[in-house]
Amino acid sequence: MMWHYATLGCEHFKLNPTHLSLLGVTVIIPICYKVECNMATRLQSTTSGLVLLMDRILVVDDDQESRDLLCEVLEANGYVPHAVADGLAAREVLHGDSEYRIVIADLQMPQESGLELLRKLRQENSKHEVILMSSFMSGAEVKAAKALGVHALLDKPFQLTDLLQTVADLAAQNSIGIST
Prior knowledge:
The protein has 180 residues and is of the alpha/beta class. The chain has helices spanning 64-76, 87-96, 114-123, 139-147, 160-173; strands at residues 4-8, 11-15, 19-22, 25-28, 35-36, 41-46, 49-54, 56-60, 80-84, 100-106, 129-134, 152-155, 177-178.
């Protein structure tokens, strides 16, 4: 049997030549070796075989340039980002699409802040993982965010690598391992 080697996220895998065509791109699906996907992709078993899933991330920030930069960086790292300008718009998107698992939100925004968004999501028993970012967070805001189960608080300006590591950690929490 001829073996292939592939990279998925930051992981390298030894794979057999079973393939899946996804959006016109051939994806090699592992059959014989354990695979753990800890970056932006997961493999899900369905009745028709294995399907490659991309982690969808909602970016919430009132600053257009910040939204654009975050989306560009996330997309370049294998995620599927979507951006909105405030918490109210974010909740509308999240109610209409259950595929978002991670929300990255600015703390200070008009109409509905990141903290208000987090509070309302928790009132709805939402399981979305939330990362809040801000150039200034008061002690009361930090305490409230932690009490509401925020995953991370990032002080602006932050290193994009810190954000990507936080997102990768969250993506890995729900990743799967496959072994046959």
